[in-house]
């Protein structure tokens, strides 16, 4: 089956059929599949936006399964690699966290309560309820800010 083709070689082929999952490409007397993920360097929603029946395309041979007579092809791999900007070209972007320290709400919630140790039980309960209500109000305010 693969007398002429070698894995990694780039050859020219003609698009015979287009399916939702890819394109069937004729390479000489053989056919192979270009999966939709191998059509372009960007995301391909509809393969018909990139290929038409009869188009001549350069493809790279990814794999050859002689037992099942299947050839896997890639147009993306045959394209020149897209150039990436050098790291020095982009200005360094600082994160918001680095600019302003963030307080952890758990630290405030779990900080030790200040209750007079000499007070009676009723006074301790009133103070505890007051602090509890203040904390709950604070948490509710934070939750309301996030919901907007």
From TrEMBL:
Segments for region (Disordered): 76-148
Where are the compositionally biased (Basic and acidic residues) regions? 78-92, 121-133
Any one Pfam family match given in the protein's UniProt record, by short name? S1
Ranges for domain S1 motif: 8-76
Per the record, the domain of life is: Bacteria
Name used for this protein in its record: S1 RNA-binding domain-containing protein
